[in-house]
Each structure stands twice: as structure tokens, then as C-alpha cells.
Amino acid sequence: xxxxxxxxxxxxxxxxxxxxxxxxxxxxxxxxxxxxxxxxxxxxxxxxxxxxxxxxxxxxxxxxxxxxxxxxxxxxxxxxxxxxxxxxxxxxxxxxxxxxxxxxxxxxxxxxxxxxxxxxxxxxxxxxxxxxxxxxxxxx
Amino acid sequence: xxxxxxxxxxxxxxxxxxxxxxxxxxxxxxxxxxxxxxxxxxxxxxxxxxxxxxxxxxxxxxxxxxxxxxxxxxxxxxxxxxxxxxxxxxxxxxxxxxxxxxxxxxxxxxxxxxxxxxxxxxxxxxxxxxxxxxxxxxxx
Lengths: 140, 140
What we know:
With about 140 residues, chain A is α+β, with helices and mostly antiparallel strands. The first copy, chain A, has helices at about 5-10, 50-75, 120-135; strands spanning about 15-20, 20-25, 35-40, 75-80, 90-95. The interface of A and B includes residues 79 and 85 of A. β4 (about 75-80) of chain A pairs antiparallel with β4 (about 75-80) of chain B, so a sheet runs across the interface.
């Protein structure tokens, strides 16, 4: 089956790049540095539905992304989560959290409506992230 | 360093068993079947702080636990998350979600105060889970 990004994910994000078989997306919510990884396999809802090989590759990419985000933004904590109650396509959230951010210390989901990036700032953040992820194996 | 479970996690859970180097815990909140995996390594906050070997072992155990929970409870969705904004010790949530459950389709964290299991039901669920996890490699 051909893979296509779920329309809700496509609407909520912009592309930052990709690893082999994994899309790297930036959420448009400016409240938090928020990156989403989506394995490009059609019809997958759960991490355990992935092949052994791809789930381990996803973990390696996830750890690389989380570590790079934490270092780049000086985050106090990374939140990494596969929820998917609303959007059935498997997607893995990576959110850089800071003491005193809008939802701290709670979870971000449902805490606040998304906040748009100011003009030019979404593109700037996208560029920052491309730089932060550039050393990661397979990122392009 | 000797590992000890964070007191908040110890207070909120009961032991279901363990994998090598990973504790398997049942959350005392009866609203959701909710299992927490804790790598028994002192001073770790993030998945990416684990060694390559242990993070991959954690993923294998996580997938086994999530798949067994989904099958056993007939869950509509598994939520798998490493948050840790309040409790610094790395712990990985596995929550079986059902359309129409107390927080559906939102995230469970912060949605409701915990609900105690009725007398005997916590022990019953613990036994159920031990049975569901018994076939998983390394579980005991």
C-alpha cells in the first residue's frame, strides 16, 4: 500500500526532513518545540504493529531527535509519547518541556488550544531543527 | 549506584513482576488498565539516557506489554508515553484506552483524580496481568 500522511497530521505540521521510512514533522503549535515522527507504513496504529526492524529504527531516530532537541533548546524534560486516540495513524510526539511552560508540569494534550507561530518564526524553527538534526544518522 | 524505585511511583503502584533490569508495575488507578515499566538504573530521566542495549530491551518489553494488554483487555488503543515532568525517574506508561472511557479521546494525565480499585480487584487485576505477561520473554 502506498503511504500517505493522515490529513489531520498534515494540517497540523510542516516537514522538517526524514529518516529512511520515517517522516520528521514540526507541529505548528508555537507553545512548545514539538516534533512528530511518523513511520511511513500504511495502516499502522501501534508501535507494536511495526516490524521488529522498523520499531528499533524508530527508537534510534526518536532518541536522536529527543537528545538533539533537549540539547538545542535546553529543555528541562522531554515528553515522548504515542497516543493516537484521535488520529489513528501511528505518530510519536517529542515535546521539549520547560519548568513554567504553558502546561507545566501537566501533559500538553488538551491543556491549551494551539498557538500560531508569528510570521517567519515557523520557518526559522524549522531551519533550527534541520541544523540540530543534521548530525543524526540517516537524517536528510 | 543501587537502584531504588522513586517513592511516588512506589506509592502509586503495585508490582506485577519484572523483566531483566526492568520493573513491571500496575498503577493503582482503577479507571484504566495502566502498567508502568521502570528501568532499574539509578539517575536516568530520559529514554535517550539509557545505554543502546537497555533502551532496545525496554522497547521489546514495552511492545510485548502493550500487545498483551491490548489483546487481553480488547483495548481500542494503547497509549505509551514517557513524560516524567513530576517524577524524575524514567518510567514508561502503558494505558489501555477504550472509546468512551473516562478521559476518551483525551490524554489521561490530569483528566481525573485516581479512582481506587474495589477490595480484591487490584489483586485480581495483578493476577490477570501476570497471566497475560507470562509468555513474554524474560518476564517473571
